[in-house]
Amino acid sequence: MELYNKPPLTYREQVELLKSRGVSFADEQEAEMHLANISYYRLSAYMLPYKKKVGGDIIDQFKEGTTWEMIYRLYAFDRKLRLIVFDAIERLEIAIRTQIIYQLSHKYGSHWQDNANIFHPETTKTLRDGRKVTFDAYGEIQKHIKEQLHNNKAEVFIKHYSSKYDRPENPPSWMSVEVMYFNHLSRICTGLKNRADINGIASYFALPPQTFCSWLHAINYLRNLCAHHARVWNRDMNIIPEKLLFSKSLDWISNPDTVQRSKAYYFFCMLNYLLQTANPTSPFKQRLIDLLEEYRDVVSLNAMGFPNNWKDEKIWEV
User: Fold this and answer.
1) How many CB atoms lie within 10 A of CB 235?
2) What are 209-219's pLDDT values in tens digits?
3) How far apart are CA 210 and CA 219, in angstroms?
4) Which of 20, 37, 66 is the last residue of a domain?
């Protein structure tokens, strides 16, 4: 172990450091402006594809011909990619939220979210690393609803319910679920005790229930990456979604066994698949295709998990 003792560098010093390591600049003043608005540390993730390797290890020297413009364009691509993905997830989130509310309300009434009997009881599981994790879908959503009732007074429907009704304590599900986050939707689906309950929601999106729950969990992870401006394009995802082998009713990839489910491409395929139900006229795939074309000079499709024949897949036809 070593003591970290690197001093902070000025923007000019950061440019000089990169020059000493092999990066060339068309406009050093513009590069300093970029560094003033986007930290060197954040941009360093987009420098990695351009660094040299020695014995399999990345070193702090750049490949011949690396320019600052290439690094910045890769960053700009990832930023635009996150915006496209986040927009697609927003459309999905609304559709999933709607189906959860609609189907469970017609089965269990307006306040199904307050019915502990439809959820699995609280359980504690031990993870592989020895940590204990408690799963309590009912408890989580009840806590969140109460926090929103107390803190989210600006929301018109909460204000209206609180001023007019004193029982039940919580608003009906079509209000309560509207103030839940995406991760709560995932918790609800995995926490439902009756398999038929999740079957109905999953089948609306043409998925088996277990696959649907797995995809929700994975999409929530992707959503959090986008919301926190984290790198997406070539990331090895920490959450691996379940494989969908085929679909009887919607377009899907022809050979899922050959696709890396830890890479961005599989996640994009999941979004595209779900949008066929949630928003059939979604511009997601056209926007993605256009973005890949615009930045083809700096983006490695292989690093994102795209197979060579991906454009031949029916799911990507436009």
Assistant:
1) 18
2) 999 999 999 99
3) 14
4) 66
